[in-house]
Structure formats: structure tokens, C-alpha cells
Write a structure and sequence with these properties.
By secondary structure, the chain is an alpha+beta fold. It folds into three domains: 20-80, 2-Layer Sandwich (Alpha-Beta Plaits), CATH 3.30.70.20; 121-305, NADH Oxidase, CATH 3.40.109.10; 319-345, no CATH class. It contains eleven helices and 15 strands. The strands form six sheets. Strands 8-9-11-10 form a four-stranded antiparallel β-sheet, with helices on both faces. The chain starts with a helix and ends with a strand.
Length: 345
């Protein structure tokens, strides 16, 4: 485990890391502040005229939550998150960002999205919840959606732990917050950061992405314990059997997405909560209280509740080229930016 191997990942050149940039049209803004509330990394603040502006120092990973919360369509995109060089280098050229393509039927005629497509495109992670509890009957319907997800070899490698007890959620928040804050402070210290080589080796380098460390962990460390569970009235831990064919993670991912979509259809907001699952699995005392023992492991978790305000809608996403290998002819079609270019094979 050498520092040289991971130095460019743990200590990227921040001059090459470009955070997302949005701007507010003052003529449209009603100064409601919902963009500020709905930003997961707290990138916004109000200027002297109560108009939202991006802070001088911030971490924006272009989720566009600010845009979906704005009731007046007052926010526009100036630039998206990208990295010019080093370990985290993104595409050579900025990828175009586009909303979903117009659907077509099997004859190629213009069509309409069906209900499932609409749910997929409009569902977004919800991080602002009402205090109103989610009824057990609704939570059970969400769990059933996960229980009937497809799995490799029909192994069904999951268990669900539902936590609606505020005291238990508070204990989890406190325990996880300590670990996140400790790791974040290590990351900020140039000398101590060398100790993160072990994290890269054991957990994967992706957990040290600037968006995770500066954005996610930085926000939790600054904002306080409640941000761990996002103030949600309910948390569902999804456990996976480590012996599962093809591994538990893929199966649990399919299960969790089923749950997300059904929750969305029932008016319940959900946020995948990677911090809860990642750090809670390292707190033995809480795992014991929750009854988690091998071969079961927390794979992911969901924070859920009734949305405090509108946090759904369609935003643009990066559009990478799609390569088609078609039966007819001797060429390969590369679909890029709605233009098909043929390459001879």
C-alpha cells in the first residue's frame, strides 16, 4: 500500500477540478430559497438583495436539485462538474447534457412516455422531509416491491430493518457522524491524508472522490448529526447475504430501485443513503442492537418520508455515445448527439 500509488487520487490538483456552476435570473426569482434548501452540498447563499448566488467556495456535482425545486424556472446551467487531469479526469471534451429523448413507437413515430417511464425520469432523491410519519402499511408496500425484485439464481439475498424510532435514528446519526467527521478531518490534513491509502485499498478509491470527500462528508461535518439520516422519519437498512451468487450488491441494487419507484408512486420521497450503510457497518454496538450478524452485511440504506416541498422533475444528464452493432450491412453505427455516424468494420 504505497502513497505514490494513490497520491493523485487522495490529493488531486484542485485547479483541475471544476465544480458545477448555476446562475439565477433575478427577474424570475421570487426569493423563496427552495434552491438553497434543496442543495445537498449547501452551495448557495443569498446576496444583499436576497437573491441566491453560489458561494465563493463550494462543492457542486451538478445534480441540479436547485433547478427542480425552483417554482419559477429561474435557474440556468452555466457549467457542469468536470476534471481536467489526474486520477479523476473526466471525458476529454465536456459531454453534452440533454433531457430524455422524445419517445417513439416501434414504427418510429412520435409517442408519449408511459407511466413507468415518467416515474423513472421524474423520480429524484429527496432530502427534505416533513415531520409526518410514514404509516407502517405504506412502508410494507415499499418493502414488498423490493422483496419481489429479480435475483441471480433466485437467491433473494436480502433482509430489511425498518427504523422509525426517533431515539434509534438519533443514536445512529451520532455514531455515524463521528466517523464521517473524523475521516473528513483526516482528508483535510496533508500529512494525515496519507493514512487514507488503507481506505483506497479496502473500500475502493471511489470513496475518496472529491465529490464524496469535499461535498458529501464536508456537508455532513459542517451541518451536524441530523444530516446523516437527512432528518427522515423512517430509515430502511437493506442487508445482503455475503454468500449470494454474483454478490449481494447487484441484487440489492435492483431491490432498492424497485422500492424507490414504488415509494415515488405512493407520494413518498426516498434518498439512497450510502453514508449510513458504509459507516454503520463499522459500529459494532449499533449493529448488535440492530441484530446484524454474519453472513449479513448492510449493503445500502434508504431515508424516506413525505417531501417537504417539490423535489421531483426532469433534469438533463450527460449523453455518452451509444454504439450499435446491427445485423444489416458491414458497419457499426455510433449514435452521438442525435447524429448517427457510420464506421466501416
Amino acid at each position: 500500500m504505497s502513497w505514490e500509488k494513490y497520491e493523485s487520487a487522495i490529493r488531486p490538483n484542485m485547479n483541475e477540478v471544476h465544480m458545477g456552476v448555476q446562475k439565477v435570473d433575478e427577474t424570475k426569482c421570487n426569493k423563496c430559497g427552495l434552491c438553497i434548501q434543496n442543495c445537498p452540498f449547501r452551495c448557495w447563499e443569498k446576496d444583499a438583495n436576497d437573491i441566491p448566488v453560489m458561494k465563493e467556495v463550494y462543492a457542486c456535482f451538478s445534480c441540479f436539485n436547485c433547478i427542480v425545486a425552483c417554482p419559477n424556472d429561474a435557474i440556468s446551467i452555466v457549467d457542469t462538474y468536470h476534471v481536467d487531469g489526474g486520477y479523476w479526469k473526466t471525458e476529454d471534451l465536456p459531454l453534452p447534457i440533454k433531457k430524455p429523448l422524445q419517445p417513439k413507437d416501434k414504427e418510429g413515430n412520435t409517442a408519449e412516455w408511459n407511466a413507468i417511464e415518467k416515474a423513472v425520469f421524474t423520480r429524484r432523491s429527496v432530502r427534505n422531509f416533513k415531520e409526518k410519519p410514514v404509516p407502517d402499511s405504506i412502508i410494507q408496500r415499499i418493502i414488498e416491491a423490493g422483496r419481489f425484485a429479480p435475483t441471480a439464481g433466485n437467491c433473494q439475498p436480502w433482509k430489511f430493518i425498518v427504523i422509525t424510532d426517533p431515539d434509534m435514528i438519533d443514536k445512529i446519526n451520532k455514531g455515524v457522524y463521528k466517523l464521517i467527521s473524523a475521516l473528513y478531518n483526516i482528508y483535510l490534513d496533508n500529512e494525515m491524508a496519507k493514512n487514507l491509502v488503507g481506505v483506497a485499498e479496502n473500500e475502493g478509491v471511489g470513496n475518496l472522490d472529491p465529490r464524496v470527500m469535499l461535498g458529501g462528508m464536508g456537508t455532513v461535518s459542517r451541518e451536524g448529526e441530523e444530516t446523516v439520516s437527512l432528518g427522515a422519519p423512517a430509515v430502511i437498512l437493506i442487508l445482503g447475504d455475503e454468500r449470494a451468487p454474483s454478490g449481494a450488491s447487484l441484487n440489492i441494487g435492483i431491490c432498492g430501485q424497485n422500492m424507490n419507484l414504488v415509494a415515488h408512486s405512493l407520494g413518498i420521497g426516498v434518498c439512497w443513503n450510502g453514508f449510513l450503510s458504509r459507516f454503520l457497518d463499522n459500529i459494532r454496538s449499533l449493529k448488535k442492537k440492530l441484530g446484524i450478524t454474519k453472513p449479513w452485511k448492510i449493503i445500502t440504506s434508504l431515508s424516506l418520508g413525505y417531501p417537504k416541498f417539490k423535489q421531483e422533475g426532469i433534469v438533463p444528464r450527460e449523453d455518452r455515445p451509444v454504439i450499435w452493432f446491427r445485423k444489416e450491412g458491414t458497419s457499426t453505427e455510433i449514435q452521438q448527439q442525435d447524429v448517427k455516424v457510420k464506421e466501416q468494420t
